[in-house]
Structure formats: C-alpha cells, structure tokens
Amino acid sequence: MRRWQIDPQSETWRGTAAFEAAVADLVDGRLLAVPTETVYGLAADATNALACADIYAAKGRPSFNPLIAHVESTKAAERHALFDARARALAEAFWPGPLTMVLPKRVDSPICDLATAGLPSVALRVPAAAIMRDLAQASGRPIAAPSANRSGRISGTTAEAVAGDLGDRLALLIDAGPTPVGVESTIVALTDERPRLLRPGGIERQAIEAVLGETLAPALVRPDDAPDAPGMLSSHYAPRAALRLEATHVEPDEALLAFGPDLPPGAEHARAVVQLSARGELREAAARLFTAMRELDASGAERIAAMPVPEAGLGEAINDRLRRAAAPRR
Ligand code: TXA
Ligand code: MG
C-alpha cells in the first residue's frame, strides 16, 4: 500500500504526480482510502462491478449493502438520479457537505448494479472534502465509498485506523489526518411521497426539515431486514421469479442461474441460462449477481434454479442475497 499525505485545506495536490497516480488507481479499478469530511471512504470506481466486488470483499461484510456514490457537483449527480424540487432544494442547501440523498436511479446511469445492490434507487453525495470531489472529477467516475472499516468495526476517522483495518487491501491510502465531522453523513430517501431519514449523521434533522418544510418520516424497516439496521434499507432487490436454491438439476420451465463450468442435468432445456462465473470465481459472480437476476427475470421464467455457490469469502454475501430472494414474499 502506498501512503500519500495531504493537507485537506490546501488543495495543492491538483496537477501533482501523486494526484495523477491516485486517479489512475481509480480508473484501473483499484481500491483507495480517501478522506472525506465525515469519515474515510473505501473508494473505487462505482461504474466498475469488479472493483465494487473488491470493496465488499475488503469490508468482509456477510451481505451486500448498497454503496454511496460520491460525485463532484449537483450537475454530476443529476446524471445518475432523478431530482425533484425537494432534492434540488436539499442539494442547494447542503451540498457540498455531509448529506446523502437516496433518489430514483436513472436507467442510463453507468453506476453498476452491484454498487446499488440491484435497487432502483441510488445514494448520492457531493462531499465537502475537496480531495474526493477532485478525484471524481478528474477520473470522470462516480466514486463508490462505504466507510473505510471492516464489517463490525467503527468507521475509520484516522489514517492509522484505516491502515490497521484495511491496509492489506488498499493500493493507496490518502492521509489527511483526522476527519473533521467524525460521524457519517445524514441519509435522506426521496423515493416516495414522504421524505425519510434513513440514518442520522453530520447534518441535523431539523435543518433538513426546515428546508423541506415538512418532517422526515422514519425509515421503513421490515423485520427480516433487522441485521441490516445500520443501513436501514427500505427494500431489497429480489427477482420477480421464485428462486430454488442449491439446485442440482433443472426442472422443465425453470431458468438456470449457473456458477462454474459444469452445468447440472436438465440445463439443456432451461428457459434461459445466465452464468455468474463460468470459471467459478466468487469476485466475478458478485460483480454479475444483480444483473444476472434481472436478466433471468427478463426471460419470463416463473422459477429460477440457482446452482450452489461456496460459502467462502464473497460467497457468504452472494448466498445471503440468494436466500433472501428465495424467501417467501410478504
Ligand atoms: O459519511 C458517509 O456517508 C461515509 C463517507 C465515506 O461518505 N460513507 C458511509 O457509507 O457511511 P456506508 O456504506 O458505510 O453507509 C452507507 C449507507 C448504507 O448503510 C446503505 O444501506 C445506505 O447508505 N444506502 C446506500 N444506498 C442506498 C439505497 N439505494 N437505498 C437505501 N439505503 C442506501
Ligand atoms: Mg459504514
């Protein structure tokens, strides 16, 4: 891991070789730790599904929680999501700054399905930290960045904490000293009629309510989402078709979600076959998972037979999502 020290106030990195190298890391799909005003982010190109799979692998989280995409300006954010009057007012009042908005994702946004965990919404933030904005602008990529900590640890607010937790996974750690806000961004969802507070954070509820002229409703959390509490997700993506797990054969009329080179008996009659990874690689499978479920739904099959995926590494999060998709709907 390279380590690069900056003065977050100076902005003198622009045009330096170290900055260009950081941009190249992003464009080439590597992982970086980037300081923001709230906490350090474990950053990668949000349009690169393999790089986003590496984020999940590095965090060691047993499930896919959607990631925040960081962009340089409101104009850049509008390339990825649909802004209504409320979203425009909040952007005007609080960006750049510690506010994240969950908005309807534009179908033509290049942000990958894995970054949004297959959801039709996307979390966007224009941070106050100029280094993150400059990297997004110079790379021309929205930057996916969850807090830079391993699953179950507290969010990294110093370069030392980040190095200790994730050092072996990073191409580059950008050290700007302790982060000034120290708590994560406030997350507001504007995906239905009522604006919802998904996570309290660096901007207080009352300030947001004053701009909106209405109170923030609580997050919708289904009981089966309880383990996701920090994310307080209002929904999880699941295919419309029913899913049959650990399939060792394909029944007539089923589509097949394949993993690995050896397809099970009946595969030749499957309504559709979508491969997660012909080589049986978990990183590639994670990168393809949500797009694959979408493709299988599009095949029109009523049921999907899913081949077993090993429970190791990213397999745990892949299996978590497949089990949720297979669970009876409420
Ligand atoms: O301050 C912050 O927000 C930091 C810095 C690095 O920007 N980032 C951060 O990311 O805290 P993370 O991944 O630790 O938390 C983001 C939360 C997750 O809990 C996730 O569930 C939620 O945002 N989220 C992301 N996209 C969402 C979506 N489409 N719908 C609902 N929740 C979403
Ligand atoms: Mg976090």
How does this model look, in words?
It is built from nine helices and 15 strands. It is globular. Helix 1 (17-27) crosses helix 5 and helix 2 (49-59) packs across helix 8 (282-298). The chain is 28% helix and 18% strand. The protein is of the alpha/beta class and 330 residues long. The termini are far apart. Bound molecules: threonylcarbamoyladenylate (TXA) and magnesium ion (MG). Magnesium ion is lined by residues 146-147, 155.
What name does CATH use for the topology of the largest domain? DHBP synthase
- Major beta sheet, strand line-up: 1-8-2-3-7-4-6-5-9-10-11
Number of E strands? 15
Give the CA-based shape: globular
**Strand percentage, roughly?**
15-25%
Low-confidence stretches: 223-234
Main sheet, how many strands, which sense, barrel? 11 strands, mixed
Please identify, by name, the CATH architecture of the largest domain. Alpha-Beta Complex
Q: CATH top level of the largest domain? A: Alpha Beta
**Which percent range fits the helix content?**
25-40%
Q: How many separate structural domains? A: 2
Order of helices and strands: EHEEHEHHEEHEHEEEHEEEEHEH
Number of helices: 9
